[in-house]
Amino acid sequence: MSASTATRSSAAKQPRTRSRASLTYTLMLFPAVALFTIFITLPGLVGMVLSFTNYAGFGAWKWIGFKNYDSLFHDSTIMGSYKFTLLFAVVTTVVVNVCALFLAVALNSKIRFKRTLRSIFFVPMVLSGIVVAYVFQYIFGFEIPSIFGGQSMLASSHWAWLGVVIVTAWQTIPSAMVIYLAGLVAIPGEVYEAAAMDGATSWRQFRSITFPLMAGYVVINTILSFKNYLNVYDVVVGLTGGGPGTSTTSVAMGLFNGFNSGDYAYSMANAVIFFIITVIIALLQLRLMKGREVSFS
Amino acid sequence: MTTYEASAPTGGGRIRKVRERHNDKLTIVLCVLSLLVIIPLYLGVTMALKTDHQAAAGNGLSLPNPFKFSNFQAAWDLVNYPRALSMSLIIAIIAVIGELVISSMAAYAIVRNWDRKAFRYSYFYLLGAMFIPFPVVALPQVKLTAILHLDNPAGVAILHILFGLSFNILLYSAFLRSVPYELEESARLDGCTTWQTFRRLIVPLLGPMNATVGIFAFIASWNDYMMPSLITASPHDQTLPVVQQIFSTSLTTNYNVAFASYLMAMLPTLIVYFFAQKWVLSGVTQGAIK
Q1: Tens digit of each residue's pLDDT (9 = 90 or more) over B182-225
Q2: CATH code at A203?
Q3: Does B81 touch chain A (CB under 8 A)?
């Protein structure tokens, strides 16, 4: 708010320059808005309209109203993909944030080899998800069974989802950790020294100082990771291919599969539902974050 | 004077901290945990150097004996590495330059015209992309890019630019709002046009921000699998992460060759990471806090 008033007042001082310059400003903004409209808004709207037709991806089509939506809710494969994706997103968000917060606190305390350890823990962040998934497919499929015996976790329709959680966590814990570290650095060391002098144990210090001060970062991280995990695709493709059966087929994967099988309009209806869910979750989380910010200041 | 007084106690505290004992127990715990990161990477490297026989029979943790460097040659030929590498590079370079230029220009125009409705609404319009995941618009986009003859690396690069746009504009405009207008006023008085002010004054100011946005754009573009695999029609124009699927679809290839190929695919981002660690990390935090 204050930023906008500041700009306005300084703008008022320069009416002549501004009106002359506005064509340049418009031209500077134009590429972003034009490309965005052509490549994102337009396809989005066309897709939404087509979700009310029986369009197969080619040829003629006619309006069929809400039929696609109606059959979506009776399609056990699609509903299964939503169940897997939501379960996966919730579990991974919790696992990643607990591990990342612990690691960030540990990497921020007085330890040896601090720089080296930090560099090591951050590496997975820059690796490609699909390639990481291929490597872990080998580890879960051959390495672990050959050392510990038993069947591969990925071959079981009950446990394959856990493999997807582990690999995604392995890859995304570092980015959550970086954000927590940034927050921890901002807490002055004196607070801990005072607490230690009063005889607070390290667990007590974490519970009473670190965690409350980090709550805002927990919210930010939860939002970022949850939004990310809803779109899970690469890791599933590389690790399980959506199987066994359809037990680890994510929503994104279901959408793309629909395209290959020619159920174009049907998949678009699925995309619209997915879009609505994403927006609802994003808005809920934004509200939650707003409340947090207020309580912070 | 005040700065000196304020910093003095902190300085004292730091000296005391250095003398304090390190937490050895925690160091050991972290070293053990770091194995969870190191072992998969170690496995990737050793596996890539084993002979077919060792890869099929032995346990993955054993050292290769003898080292078989020809796996890299085999992988190089099998995935046509130079071709896939150049496709990845072309896409990443267009995406990085495009994101830097288009987002910084748009953010500057928006921030300096915040009092105009059209610019303000454009800002929220562009930010809306954060709520649109790629899978939602993917199918119509595949159609669109085919119609426009952009079902190739150029189309993928354009989409990379657009899906990075809202985040980058958010970063740039937050930064530009903190730049005082008075700074530009003097340039204007010297007769600079808007474009000249942007080129000569604002762009240099954006230096560190450009590094962050650029490195992130590079890593995101390089590692992306979804967009190239869906948008690019010809298998010959696929990027490095996408061509790796050859090893999971054909059963005849050996794991040692596959891992050599995975290593070569991951190498470029690893190199960027080791040389630009500082910016990679600051980028993550900046994005989250804004």
Answers
A1: 888 888 888 888 888 888 888 888 887 888 888 888 988 999 99
A2: 1.10.3720.10
A3: no
**The token pair that represents B6 in the structure block:** 């304020």
- Whole-complex ipTM: 0.83
8 Å CB contact of A44 and B138: no
Tally of CA atoms within 13 A in the half-sphere of A144 that contains its CB:
16
Identity at B40, one-letter amino acid code: P
Note whether A112 contacts B24, CB cutoff 8 Å.
Answer: yes
| Per-residue model confidence as pLDDT tens digits over B270-286 | 888 888 877 766 665 65
Q: Encoding tokens for residue A195?
A: 């607490």
In sign, the C-alpha dihedral spanning A103, A108, A114, A116 is positive
Which residues of chain B are within 8 Å of residue A50 when distances are taken between CB atoms? Answer: 140
Q: Per the CB < 8 Å rule, is B159 touching A39?
A: yes
For chain B, the straight-line distance linking the first and the last C-alpha, in angstroms and rounded, comes to 33
In a domain, A208, yes or no: yes
Residue A34 and residue A96 in one domain: no
Range of the domain at A113: 72-296
- CA-only gyration radius of chain A, Å: 25
Among A281, A178, A131, which Cα is nearest to B223's?
A131
Domains and CATH numbers, chain B: 2-73 (no CATH), 79-243 (1.10.3720.10)
